[in-house]
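Per reviewer request, we include the raw input and output of the structure prediction for the construct analysed in the revised manuscript.
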Amino acid sequence: MPIYEYESVEAGEVVELLRSMKDADAPVEDPAGKGRTFRRRMSVFGAVGGASADGGAPSSGGHVHSSSCGCGKPRGSCGL
């Protein structure tokens, strides 16, 4: 079962709930029992690396060296 994020309409508090896909959009009871209304929100997930803002190669801060990255450094040398 996937984990979905829900946001409190009144307070903006975010909770994560493990729910089946068929129940993802069903009403959510307040986990704290305070009677707040929650709505499903778009999840944001983090990523390591990626292209720079100008569309160039990944920045060195997020670059994960692999045997196929072509930078010549040994795999895992960035410490990640």
